[in-house]
Design brief:
Strand content: 15-25%
Largest sheet: 8 strands, mixed
Structural class: alpha/beta
Bound molecules: ligand PMT
Distance between the termini: 22 Å
Shape: elongated
Radius of gyration: 25 Å
Length: 400
């Protein structure tokens, strides 16, 4: 499971730092490549020589090598790693992570991390219980960091209570289960909607929108690569179906047809991702023949509400199903996205805004913020839609 995985192991200054050597050894034995980043205080508890010998790599601690001036790039580490694990994470390091106080190499690496981050706190029981620490932990969780809860037991102070870092073998189990969850969709069925809907006015005209289907198709491809059985319901788009045996495509035109196809398919799916831009209204009457301009000065088209597919599915959500909607906004982004999350009974909403250049309709890139019904709010950088799809799937599989 860990073979070939790139892991940054961050070590901060607490007595539990001695356990990091065991953790490092276990990770290496499992085939991971590990780069240790240690804080200046961490070095008081365990020597870089021990960690370099175990990892087979020089330990990173300072911004520069003193005698050569060589710069150690925390940005490169963020691009290299599949996962960052900070064990032990002291109250001080947790506080700096929560508030962006980048005064050492571990924190700059954390702030540049593109990969998911796991944190194994270790401190005295009163420090752990303190509202300041608890608020910082809540903040880090909300941003998508994964906390490996400390255990109760005897502490360095001689007191007994919660604050002991989890044992190295249990941290490895958490890391393995993280990769297992984030990788595979085998045995999972995923329903995805993509593209626009067209609402006919007459045989040649329609009301539509600019959705190209790229976002939904990228998600379908990502799910297929991970072994999921994908049903891709698409409005009229020019894209060809990604070439995977495990993608079944259903083509529809209007919101009503998309609604019907979703209703027919949704009960046997484990994950439902609604990336389509569905027209909220449709003409109440579709002319049988092409409407002529002669003799008609003003034209009024009376529109009636289409079914809200996400809200209908949300109200019928089965236990265990994960439902993800999108919110495409132009203003009051967060407020509007939260309203949709709650109103449609979704587990996650993926917010993208037309105010972000290179995001949204037709672009090959997108910039999203994922918001969960548990209050997590995870912003992502501008990325290709294919990478955005990966982030979405990783997030829903690894976060609660
Ligand atoms: O297709 P691309 O060109 O790649 O562009 C991608 C995208 C911008 C279309 C995509 O990223 C996106 O944001 N899709 C949702 C667009 C949208 O209709 O957002 P909304 O905020 O109006 O709808 C909220 C959610 O309810 C969406 O999940 C939507 O699918 C769903 N909905 C909306 C109306 C309706 N009648 N039924 C629905 O199910």
């Amino acid at each position: 499971m860990l073979k070939g995985k790139h892991i940054v192991l961050g070590i901060s200054g607490g007595i539990a730092a001695y356990k990091s050597a065991y953790l490092l050894r276990l990770l290496i034995k499992k085939g991971a490549e590990v780069q240790v980043v240690i804080t200046p205080n961490g070095k008081e508890f365990i020597t870089p020589a021990t960690l370099a010998a175990l990892s087979g790599k020089p330990v990173v601690s300072d911004f520069f090598t003193a005698n050569t001036g060589e710069w150690h790039s925390h940005v490169d580490l963020g691009l290299w790693a599949d996962l960052m694990v900070i064990a032990p994470a002291t109250a001080c390091t947790i506080g700096k992570m929560a508030h962006g106080i980048a005064d050492n190499m571990l924190i700059t690496t954390y702030l540049s991390a593109k990969e998911p981050v796991m944190i194994a706190p270790a401190m005295d029981l009163d420090m752990w219980k303190h509202p300041s620490t608890q608020d910082n932990i809540t903040l880090l969780k909300r941003r998508g960091n994964i906390i490996i809860e400390p255990k109760s037991g005897e502490l360095a102070s001689g007191l007994v209570g919660k604050g002991r870092m989890e044992e190295p073998d249990k941290i490895v189990e958490a890391i393995e289960s993280f990769f297992a969850k984030s990788q595979s969709l085998r045995d999972k069925k995923i329903l995805i909607t993509a593209g626009p809907t067209y609402e006919n006015i007459d045989p040649v005209r329609f009301i539509g929108n600019y959705s190209s289907g790229k976002m939904g198709f990228a998600i379908a491809e990502e799910c297929a690569v991970r072994g999921g059985q994908v049903t891709l319901i698409t409005g009229p788009v020019a894209l060809t179906t990604p070439q995977y045996e495990n993608i079944k495509r259903i083509k529809v035109i209007s919101a009503k047809e998309m609604h019907a196809a979703c209703m027919e398919n949704f009960t046997h799916n484990d994950i439902i991702i609604l990336a389509a831009a569905v027209a909220d209204y449709a003409p109440d009457y579709v002319a049988e023949k092409k409407i002529k301009r002669e003799g008609v000065e003003d034209m009024v088209i009376h529109l009636v509400k289409n079914p809200d597919i996400a809200a209908t599915l949300g109200s019928r959500k089965l236990s265990g199903q994960i439902m993800v909607g999108f919110a495409l906004e132009t203003d009051n982004e967060l407020e509007n996205a939260l309203k949709k999350l709650n109103k449609k009974n979704l587990d996650w909403i993926v917010l993208n805004s037309l105010r972000d250049a290179e995001a949204g309709f037709m672009k090959d890139t997108n910039k999203i913020t994922m918001i969960s019904s548990h209050g997590q709010l995870i912003p992502f950088d501008l990325k290709s839609k294919r990478t955005v799809a990966k982030d979405i799937i990783d997030t829903i599989l690894t976060q609660k």
